[in-house]
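Entry: Rab3 GTPase-activating protein catalytic subunit
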Amino acid sequence: MFDFCPQLERFDDFTIASSWERFISEIEAICRQWLADGPKILMQKGAESVPSFENLYMIKRELKRGKRVYSMEYHFMKSAKGKNTYWEDDTHTMQLSFGVDEFLMIAPLSASGVVLDDPESTKLLSSVAIALSNCGSNWPAFVPVHDPSRKAYIGIQNLGTVFTRRFEADRIGSQVPIRLMHLEGLHELFLSKFVLSSTDFPARVKVHFSMKLTYRTPEYDYDNETLDSEATESLVENEVVNHPKKQWDDDCPWAEWYSAEDPVKGFELTAIWGEKTFEETLEMAEVENASSFDADSWFLYPVVSQYMVDDSIGKFVGFASQLHLLVNAYESSAEAQFLEDFVADTSGQDNSKSTTTVPPPSVIDRVMKDLFKAGNSNFMESENKYSRAMRGAPADSLFGQFCLHALWFGNCNIRAIAVLWIDFVREIRWCWEESERLPRMRISSSIDLSSCLIHQKLQMLAICIERKKSLNREKSVGHKDETSNAAAANKTRKGSAGVVPKMMLLNTFQEMHAPYTQDAPLMTEDMHEERLHAAEAFGNAIGLSGQLERDILSSDMSAFKAANPDAVFEDFIRWHSPGDWVSEDNADGNSGWPPKGKLSQRMSEHGNVWRKIWNDAPPLPVSEQKSLLDPVREGEKVLHYLETLRPQQLLEQMVCTAFKSSADILNKTTYGAFKLMKTKMDQLYATMASTLKSLQGKSDISDLAGDLKRLCQVFEHIEKLLILAASIHRKLIDAPRLAQAIFADYFNYYLPKMGTTLESICYEKEFTTKQKVGMHERDAVSNLFPPPTANQSWRKVLSMGNLLNGHEPTQREIIFSVQERVSNGHYSSPTPLYADNEQIQTHRMYICGTSNDLWVALSVTSWD
């Protein structure tokens, strides 16, 4: 046998011999796929939107060469960007810096994300350039280089077979040369990239120039409004130290209860000079000294505080946060039958924590002094149609103020509320016993039944105190008796309010007089319910359901007898209850005297209660009668109610009143004609009325807790927006259209967050919308930049020019470019790739800098 070893034929592909060539091939395959797919398909395949850029998407792939792993990202636009739109906010830094639309970025997957080795970066860029050339793609490609803080890049772009565009960017992070702080020096820097000598180009080079300046409003010093430097010098040192610092919201309606952080930290003003052409460096000096009012466009952007979108507990302190604590106290209110149980010493129990602490007596005394200080209530009821449906007390009433103080008393826990309520009722009893007028209560002859029961009781008590005081004084002079003409009898007529037209007394043919009568006694909601229950229990056969009705009827009969001494029972029925007098006069109206008629069946029955009361009623005018309202008895009943009120009943009424009062206070905020804010406030009232209606229905606490907490969340969103609206309105009060537009932009940005769930919504998207400033609004916007004081001027060295009211820009961005016709000079080509008159951008430089920072990006087009 012969050993046979088959020789396998093998082919070596020397076209992909090295690792770099295989790397290039892999890049080429990926780019070909991306080119074939196009933007629409790439978006369907999972291309991600670049954060903060609505029109820019990115897809990436990882590549491996040896031990190094690279990430290649392709950035593309959903829709093409128009010409000269690089100053728009929706422009990526790379697009703005190098004047490109779509681009590739390749970088190693490392901590820094940059290539630190120069040979490696050059080889990496060359690999991408070869791959793109093989694909026939004109995509520009970039590689980050050097230290990350320098933000340095190198890049390349193939423009057909003739032209190549190269990119380079670097940064000076400190000690910027003075020459480069000014436009003249920057212009010379740009010219130096292609003008080697005066013979290379004509003496004057046409340079296209565009500039964007960003100004930031200085931190506003509210003290300067009331305390200028001269006044400060005249004050003693201690007086200056003790001078209270003025807050931005000192004159806002909520300022009495808390000071809100200004949601608008400042404004950024962007001034843009459109593209212009300059031929001499000296012209740059004129631009630098030009007024910002000469800019083609102004755009304004509010710098909004982060707490506006932060739901973290404790980040925002306002009515909403305290209402949330009150709801927690309401949940705990069912744990005891009496408020005193919460006040009892709980030091040995688990619930003796910081959440149940009570402020010291000095704080309680201060609250009581504020609640019971002399003075009338001047609060105007909210005009919102849902306000009265919430069954709360007015914000400036005694109970309304108690609820508002309770929100900020300690941490609004149930124990602190119980302590405050007991002291509150003790002060009310003192006012009653000393016949002192209740503060913050309007003197009215009626009780507001649309308010909560506690407020009704306090209204009743205020009236009882006034009636009690009048009993201790001399009786007032009664109404002056009015007598009729000579037909009056020897009996004295008293308490007449006037003659009743076409009514005569049956027996004497005298004119019937209507008497002054007592008003029906005031009743609170629970008293009306008792009266209704009595009517259901005793029936209404004779029109009387209880002692109260008997007393009212007796009073009216006594007054009628005093005004009509010769009247009989039938006369009273004809005046008081015409339905119980059955007339028998002729239909033609001709009737003799006395008129024919009789009492109704119920009034003529034997033992009729009305006739019995008539027989017992003495002839007394109102001035001599005993009042239907017994102030002492009713006052004691009110105090008994307040002193024995159950915790849950108290907290139910406190929750309704606190929500209503807080909303009414916020509703007095001045925010101009912001229709969106007005609509949201109306929606808040409607939501509160709907939610709190369930609370008045005596529903289970556990069922209501979730709804009330969601209501607190909604309240917080609207409270934040309202504070923002007030801040924007007062800062741009002379530019109302601009203020409304800025608020509308932020409102639409914030709207998705205004859900009703308790969970915090992830809100990573930043607010970046800018509003264009009209020419007539520029003066109002420039007032946001008050000239610096002498104190501020010597501290800061101005070095950049383009001042706005003495303030230099925080950032200056410039684009220099030079264009040439293809048929001229260095860029002429025998290959007809472009029309003879078409121009290409040969050099472009983007400069972004401040007085101590400069970043330069250069792109150069060469003919290969």
